[in-house]
Amino acid sequence: MFSKLEARIEAVTRRSLLAFLAVISILVGLAFLTVAGWIAIADMASPLVAALVLAAVWVIGGGVFLLMSSNDKPAEPAPPPAPAVDPTMAIISAFLSGFTAGNGRHADRDRDE
Predict the structure, then answer these.
(1) Is 63 among the domain residues?
(2) Where are the transmembrane segments (predicted)?
């Protein structure tokens, strides 16, 4: 029992660490991409234009992500678990239900005669 729990904790920890490293790598890449964009735009225009373009790109990107995050619908609650049924009681209940149905049918046949 504990080995399954330990394996699950280890898997979650590993996935979390890899996700964290992926986010850090993406952020570093975005920083270098921003610098490269700055150099390219500043070379074509002026540093002021480069600053305005890159700021606009980051603000618009942030706004898009903010809108995407606010459109999440709340998760529906899970349905309640089915009540536990004792198999012996289920068999007894089925037998009694059939027995009652049979008696009712037998009573109807006696009335018709």
Answers:
(1) yes
(2) 20-41, 47-68
Domain count along the chain: 2
- Give tens-digit pLDDT for 44-102: 999 899 989 999 998 998 888 888 877 767 777 888 887 777 888 888 888 888 888 87
Residues 46 and 16 reside in one and the same domain: yes
Question: Is the pTM for the entire model greater than 0.85?
Answer: no
Q: What is the pLDDT of residues 38-53, one digit of tens each?
A: 999 999 999 899 989 9
DSSP line for 55-100: HHHHHHHHHHHHHHHHTPPPPPPPPPPPPP--HHHHHHHHHHHHHH
> Is 77 inside any structural domain?
no
Tokens (6 digits) for 43: 């070379």
Domain limits for position 102: 85-113
Distance CA 105, CA 99 (A): 10
Which amino acid makes up residue 44?
Answer: M
Give the dihedral sign, CA 100/102/106/109. positive
